[in-house]
Amino acid sequence: MGTDNSLLTTRQLQDLLQVDRITIYRMLSDGRLHGFKVGGQWRFSREAIERWLQEQQASLEVPELPSLNGQLQASAQALSLSCIQAIQEIFAEALGVGAVTTDPDGRPITPVANTCEFCGLILDSQEGRKRCISSWQAAAATQGDTARPLVCHAGLSYIWARIKVRGTFRAAIHAGQFLTHPPLAEDGWPDRLAVLSKVCGLRPRQLEKALDSVVVLDTERQDQISHMLQRVAQTFSEMGEERLNLLARLQRISEISTI
Q1: What pTM value is reported for the model?
Q2: What is the pLDDT of residues 178-231, one digit of tens each?
Q3: Are 44 and 8 in contact (CB under 8 A)?
Q4: Are 50 and 39 in contact (CB under 8 A)?
Q5: 88: closest CA among 115, 117, 56?
Q6: Comparing C-alpha atoms, which of 248, 233, 228 is closest to residue 84?
Q7: d(CA 233, CA 225)
Q8: What are the extents of the domains in the chain?
Q9: pLDDT band for position 15 (50/70/90)?
Q10: DSSP string covering the chain, please?
Q11: Contacts of 180 (CB under 8 A, 6+ apart)
């Protein structure tokens, strides 16, 4: 019986993509590849794979836009921002915190996920957003890769971790919008709220009431978030490695096909 040239075996797909069998199974598991089983063996539509390769190549080509500086271009090239955003949103909602991914200079490359009412009011104001970005930039300037709690301009805590691709700092993921203990008057919260309401153009009572939406996390919960954040950052790093490797393979495939 002849071989159906419209279908690829797992081995043929490995040779085409230049990846190992485990990577093929991982891509099947997370939905990046689609196949079906024939007699217990995976088969892949050659037409579907070629179409997928074309889509991947198009998504990997980041246009040189005037609005993107060098850092943003590098981050967008190394990371699939749609995948990053989707995982970030699941992570934030599951752990009950806000989350955002930034470039190495602290500028956001994804929308902030799972924003609490308090931070939403601040982020909606131009000055408030500038101050939030300043906090993310301050984190990027710190030394070390270990996720640890920091305090933002608004007095809330957040944890962040570097995303490295091929040893280069490409982005950072921040998980925050929580308190380590209830906001007390003796800790200066009335004065802080007064300053925030003034610079953000908000009513003091409005901001004070929204502060009730901020969760207070104990040390155990903070440690859990820190641990999960490191795992997410590592996953993003591995995705970036695969993305750049795939780009190189697609370029080779394109070069071969033109010979």
Answers
A1: 0.68
A2: 999 999 888 899 999 999 999 999 998 999 999 998 999 999 999 999 999 999
A3: yes
A4: no
A5: 115
A6: 233
A7: 12
A8: 7-60, 70-241
A9: confident
A10: ----TTEEEHHHHHHHHT--HHHHHHHHHTTSS--EEETTEEEEEHHHHHHHHHHHHHHH-----TT--HHHHHHHHHS-HHHHHHHHHHHHHHHTSEEEEE-TTS-BSSPPBS--HHHHHHHTSHHHHHHHHHHHHHHHTSS-SS--EEE-TTS-EEEEEEEEETTEEEEEEEEEEEESS---GGGTHHHHHHHHHHHHT--HHHHHHHGGGSEE--HHHHHHHHHHHHHHHHHHHHHHHHHHHHHHHHHHHHHHHT-
A11: 149, 157, 216, 217, 219, 222
Give me the pLDDT at residue 78, please: 59
Ramachandran sector of residue 203 (left: φ over 0; alpha: ψ -120 to 50; beta: rest): beta
Structural contact between residues 165 and 237, judged by C-beta atoms closer than 8 angstroms: yes
Q: What is the chain's length?
A: 259
What are the backbone dihedrals phi and psi of residue 45, each rounded to the nearest 5 degrees, phi first? -70, 120
The model's pLDDT over 37-57, given as tens digits with 9 standing for 90+, comes to 888 889 988 888 878 777 665
What gap in Å lies between CA 245 and CA 251, rounded to an integer? 10
Name the more confident of 188 and 5: 188
CB of 140 closer than 8 Å to CB of 133:
no
| Burial of 77 (C-beta count, 10 Å sphere; 0-12/13-18/19+) | middle
Average pLDDT, the chain: 82
CB 184 within 8 A of CB 155: no
Tell me which amino acid residue 10 is: T
Angstrom distance (rounded) from CA 49 to CA 253: 13
